[in-house]
Design a protein that fits this description.
heterodimer, A: 5 helices, B: alpha+beta, 5-stranded mixed sheet, rod-shaped
Chain lengths: ~130, ~300
């Protein structure tokens, strides 16, 4: 070990900096907040109408939340955060898919109802016209 | 030198990760095209602009991560987030479009109902018009009936006028209202004692009576003869008959139909005055013409 002392110090400092930089990437804090948000989003989406109109999307969200928890348990916090964020957005997708399906049905029904109403009113008008012509 | 290398190589590697060209990532490509498609969908651009902006922001973060050579898992994660945000934008736009259809259908329904109500109201108005017309008709009927009633009233008034006219005519003859009807007494001035010949002095009264009967052809009259108690009752009865007949003959000769007249002899019965005096006996020698009341003048004459 004939390395001069100043260089040794410099190397130590640089190595410490390198570890500090890399360590910043690895040591992710426990993602309890992200998991809580995801959990709330999934619970909000987990309704009977969503499970009826968007069952696949809801299942993806639930599975993703479960994976996030598993990642947390495995201390893979980065992955846990990503999965939690995905679970949250999946839950929103499930809700909106169900809502869009419901409103599409409502639109079709109201259009049908409007047609029925038009026919009914026409029928009444004809009947009234018949009565008046008598 | 050796020691420099040990310091510089890790540092170079560290900075190189930040500058090199991003790797191709299938998930990122997919997210990019999804965002482009959503941007070019006018329904999404119009109805879910906020959601579209979030998706675009998410795509920018993913692209930046790819440019920064972030871990493939991270880029995939960010691409997935972008894809899901695009789905949210699409679903939101679709929901709003459907809601607009529902609202439009509701508006259309309201419009139709309003039209139907209007028609109904028009129909009701038509029915009301009809009812009004029928009312007007019945009013016309009522008017006609009222007019008929007025006519009837007028006829009644004319009847009254005729009756009062009748009374006026008979008044000239000193007619008296009795239970049996109007009675006109022709005094003994008409006849000489014991004779049934009508004197010229009584002829004006006879003429008035004849005019009366001719104007009132529905009137019938009983011509009753009376005498005083001078002489035998049988003679007096005969004389009263002859005098009644004389009056009837005179009336017929003046144009009164015989069917309107009849005679009755009373002789010396039913005197109207005392036969003990000459004046009384004169009053008892008489012919009474009893004009029978008709149903028409029962009311007005009573």
């Amino acid at each position: 070990m004939n390395i001069p002392r100043p260089i040794r110090i410099a190397t130590t400092v640089m190595t410490s900096i390198l570890f500090a930089v890399l360590g910043g990437c690895v040591t992710t804090p426990v993602p309890s907040a992200q998991l809580a948000v995801a959990d709330a989003a999934v619970q909000h989406a987990n309704t009977s109408s969503t499970s009826q109109d968007a069952p696949a999307e809801l299942q993806i969200a639930i599975a993703k939340l479960s994976s996030a928890r598993q990642a947390e348990t495995n201390r893979d916090y980065e992955r846990a955060i990503q999965l939690a964020q995905e679970a949250e957005v999946d839950a929103q997708v499930a809700e909106l898919t169900a809502q869009s399906a419901r409103t599409r049905r409502a639109a079709v029904e109201s259009q049908d109802a409007a047609h029925v109403l038009v026919e009914e009113i026409d029928r009444q008008n004809h009947r009234r016209a018949d009565q008046e012509s008598q | 030198m050796n020691t420099r290398m040990t310091v510089l190589v890790p540092l170079a590697a560290l900075f190189a990760a930040c500058t090199s060209i991003p790797e191709q990532n299938a998930a990122l490509d997919q997210a990019t095209s999804a965002v482009d498609a959503a941007r070019h969908n006018p329904q999404v651009a119009a109805l879910a602009p906020d959601e579209l902006t979030k998706a675009a922001d998410s795509l920018r973060v993913a692209e930046q991560a790819a440019t920064d050579h972030a871990a493939t898992a991270t880029v995939n994660h960010l691409a997935y987030m972008t894809l899901q945000r695009v789905r949210i934008a699409n679903d939101t736009a679709s929901s709003k479009a459907s809601q607009a259809v529902v609202a439009g259908a509701a508006a259309e329904r309201d419009k139709l109902l309003l039209e139907a109500r209007t028609n109904e109201a028009a129909s009701a108005e038509y029915a009301a018009d009809n009812a009004e017309k029928q009312l007007a008709l019945s009013e016309q009927n009522n008017d006609r009936k009222a007019a008929e009633l007025a006519n009837a009233d007028a006829a009644a008034i004319r009847n009254d006028a005729r009756v009062s006219d009748l009374e006026m005519q008979l008044k000239d003859l000193n007619a008296k209202q009795t239970d049996r009807g109007m009675v006109v007494t022709l005094g003994d001035v008409l006849f000489d004692t014991g004779k049934s010949q009508i004197l010229a002095s009584g002829s004006s009264n006879i003429t008035k009576l004849a005019d009366f009967f001719k104007r009132n052809p529905a009137r019938t009259a009983l011509i009753e003869g009376y005498t005083d108690d001078v002489g035998a009752p049988s003679v007096n009865l005969e004389l009263s008959q002859q005098r009644a007949n004389a009056v009837m003959t005179a009336l017929i000769s003046l144009g009164v139909p015989a069917g309107q007249l009849a005679t009755l002899a009373h002789g010396e019965d039913m005197p109207t005055a005392d036969n003990a005096t000459a004046a009384g006996r004169q009053m008892n020698r008489r012919v009474e013409i009893v004009i029978a009341p008709t149903s028409k003048d029962v009311v007005s004459i009573e």
